[in-house]
Amino acid sequence: MSTIEDKILDGPRVHYCDADDDDIRTGEDAGLDLDDPDVVATRNDVSSLFVRPDQESSLRNGSASHRMRSQGYSMNTGPKGVIADHRKHSLSKSSSKVDDSDLDEEFKELLNDDSIIKSMAERRIAQLINLPSFGSVFRLATGSELLDAIDKENPNVLIVVHIYARFSRPCAKVDKCLDILANEFKQIKFVTLDASAAGLSDNFKENGVPALLAYRGGNLVKSLVQLEDLLDKDFEAAQLRELLIDNEIIR
């Protein structure tokens, strides 16, 4: 069963705090062997949102690839990757490699198959038609309400969570911007929750907010912390919208 910590800490992150923050631990400090992929994977799973990008990239890539390999998953993405994965799965005991030129040709054939394109378009349209409409921001009071808002929602719905601190002017500005964006993007569910109610650390409440976390299908797909440093001092809804688009949270 998911916990509030799982929902907030597990997923891709953007931005970071300084290296001397309490939420950052180095392998040397903890007496860990960072050459052991199992140790790195475990360490990254429990890391906070506050990780420098240069550290985060190596940690996330190393632990993710180790977990994927250990579970038999491939790291391929995109159309050609999907085709390659399908072939590898069908020929799991074969050591033959898939040639890129073959993938290109096969992908072109797929694109020229009107029935496949039509089927994909129809499925996507059906998903969009069946999505609920919201149009306003939901103010949550407890971590349990956040878990319900994420886990009990339509798995195709994008949920954007604003973690805020009371009496914070930047957080109040983000709230006002979200009221505008919620009316513009009605099929996105915008919710807010006080960092204290979420049980986050004092360090996060002081340095991490305002923070936006995006979920789909119960999974954290992207988080933006310290928004105050990512936006102009007098930011408005248009700049926040652009930030979300740039980070592929909304389209």
TrEMBL record:
Pfam families: Phosducin (PF02114). Residues 51-99 are annotated as: Disordered. InterPro entries: Phosducin, Phosducin-like_reg, Phosducin_N_dom_sf, Phosducin_thioredoxin-like_dom, Thioredoxin-like_sf. One of its GO terms (biological process) is regulation of G protein-coupled receptor signaling pathway. It comes from the Eukaryota. Residues 120-244 form the Phosducin domain. Keywords: Phosphoprotein. CDD domains: Phd_like_Phd (cd02987). Belongs to the phosducin family. This is Phosducin-like protein.
